[in-house]
Design brief:
47% of the residues lie in helices and 15% in strands. By secondary structure, it is an alpha+beta fold. The chain has three domains: 104 residues, Acyl-CoA dehydrogenase/oxidase, N-terminal domain (Butyryl-Coa Dehydrogenase, subunit A, domain 1, Orthogonal Bundle), CATH 1.10.540.10; 112 residues, Butyryl-CoA Dehydrogenase, subunit A, domain 2; 145 residues, Butyryl-CoA Dehydrogenase, subunit A, domain 3 (Up-down Bundle), CATH 1.20.140. The strands form three sheets. The protein has a four-stranded mixed sheet with strand order 1-4-5-8. The chain has a four-stranded antiparallel sheet with strand order 2-3-7-6, with no helix packed on it. Helix 1 packs parallel to helix 4 and helix 10 runs antiparallel to helix 11. The N and C termini lie far apart (43 Å). The model has no long low-confidence stretch (mean pLDDT 97). The structure holds flavin-adenine dinucleotide. The site of flavin-adenine dinucleotide has 23 residues, from strand 1, strand 3 and helix 13. It is an enzyme of class 1 (oxidoreductase). Keywords: FAD, Flavoprotein, Oxidoreductase. It comes from Candidatus Accumulibacter adjunctus.
């Protein structure tokens, strides 16, 4: 398959080498058991791939978002699911950009070495959903700590993480000028918190995605775990979300190429009416169209990454890349399933698994409508719709 922009060929080759040890059958088994790919994650951590964006002074590789996104893309392009690990790649960014020198010294070298997992970020709440700034979880300063009470939902990888980034309200909504003020970010040591004010309840879901409800009941968080300035957490969060969106766009691109490659191969091999099904325009044109859409989305993904790496504003491009890539991968998933006819439904072809996995990205980490609302308001100057 000839693609337009496969940057960083040396990283791709090395990640593919690692992924070859974890073939389709491995991920299929993990999916069937709703298990976590521990061996795969351990191999990625040992090889240092998840520390790509940590500066060299803290033991990482000091690479940019473009290179990091190639790592995530290749995992999905090889048939895996980077959702098991992508938090480790970007959650540390909040600490890196906004943490104190002491916090960075304390956590980043251990994260880079794979001794500490920072896989989780807790933002979403059951009653407020996409209206993030109205979230109700509170962190109240008392003596040397903050006392956290409230509830979160859909918080991923908590059972496979040591640290979690938490967004909570430190100043009541009624007392701030703008909704986005009065929110703060904390680093939560899950090893101490779970069972001591934090309860974790797994959510059974459509994908093999380790995700949970969290209940905070007077969890005491040391004051030194506040990241940056109290009340500025929402602003800090936004910078990190751009990286998350660009990385997830890259995962969708990886999925998209995987679907196109599988569909193309099958269309060439499957003989019906005494000829390959791929010789019918009704079969080959949708595959070609899916490929074109992935190629186009890929260019926006690289634009978002390049801007992030150049420290230029990239919110619009990260949002648009995530939307285009998620839509293109979903379209490619549909085409791939259709091309395989009944066999697309058989687990051993892995298409139904990847089909479920890639569907998630039109809802998380931000749903499509919220991206439309952002573009309409911030790029087109239309009235805010919510
Ligand atoms: C598997 C999974 C893993 C996740 N992991 C995490 C995680 O690790 N951490 C975390 O914090 N969150 C996580 N999430 C949550 C995810 O980010 C949210 O589900 C997502 O942002 C949408 O929020 P919601 O589910 O509350 O939907 P809602 O906000 O209730 O929206 C429901 C629907 O209404 C639409 N809608 C809402 N408001 C408007 C409007 N004004 N205009 C037009 N349409 C609107 C939305 O687009 C959506 O289609 C995860 C979710 C899933 C499913």
């Amino acid at each position: 398959m000839q693609t337009t922009a496969d940057l960083h060929p040396e990283i791709r080759e090395a990640v593919r080498d690692l992924c070859r040890q974890f073939p389709d059958a491995y991920f299929r088994r993990i999916d069937e058991r709703r298990a976590y790919p521990d061996d795969f994650v351990a191999a990625l951590l040992a090889a240092g791939w998840l520390a790509a964006m940590i500066p060299e002074e803290y033991g990482g590789s000091g690479l940019g978002l473009t290179a990091a996104s190639v790592i995530m893309e290749e995992i999905n392009r090889c048939g895996g699911n980077a959702a098991a690990v992508h938090g480790q790649m970007y959650n540390m960014g909040t600490l890196l950009r906004n943490g104190s020198p002491a916090q960075k010294e304390r956590y980043l070298p251990a994260i880079a070495a794979g001794r500490l997992r920072i896989q989780s970020m807790a933002v979403t709440e059951p009653t407020t959903g996409s209206d993030t700034t109205r979230l109700r979880t509170t962190a109240v300063r008392r003596d040397g700590c903050y006392v956290v009470s409230g509830q979160k939902v859909w918080i991923s990888r908590v059972r496979h993480s040591d640290l979690m980034i938490l967004l909570a309200r430190t100043t009541p909504l009624a007392e701030v000028r703008r909704k986005a003020e009065g929110l703060s970010i904390f680093i939560i040591d899950l090893r101490e918190a779970i069972g001591n004010g934090l309860e974790v309840r797994p959510i059974a879901n459509m994908v093999n995605h380790e995700t949970n409800e969290l209940f905070f009941d007077g969890l005491e968080v040391p004051a030194e775990n506040l990241i940056g300035e109290e009340g500025q957490g929402f602003r800090y969060l936004l910078d990190g979300l751009n990286a998350e969106r660009a990385l997830i766009a890259a995962e969708c691109i990886g999925d998209g190429y995987w679907f196109v490659e599988r569909a193309t191969r099958y269309a060439g091999e499957r003989i019906v009416f005494e000829r390959p099904i791929g010789s019918n325009q009704g079969v080959q044109f949708p595959i070609a169209e899916a490929f074109i859409d992935i190629e186009a989305a890929n260019l926006m993904r690289y634009e978002a990454c390049a801007r992030f790496d150049a420290q230029r504003p990239c919110g619009a491009q990260a949002n648009m890349a995530k939307h285009l890539a998620a839509r293109a991968s979903w379209q490619a998933a549909n085409v791939c399933l259709q091309t395989h006819g009944g066999f697309g439904f058989a687990s051993e072809y892995d298409i139904e698994r990847k089909f479920r996995e890639t569907r998630l990205y039109q809802v998380a980490p931000i749903s499509t409508n919220l991206i439309f609302a952002y573009v309409a308001e911030h790029l087109l100057g239309l009235p805010r719709s919510y």
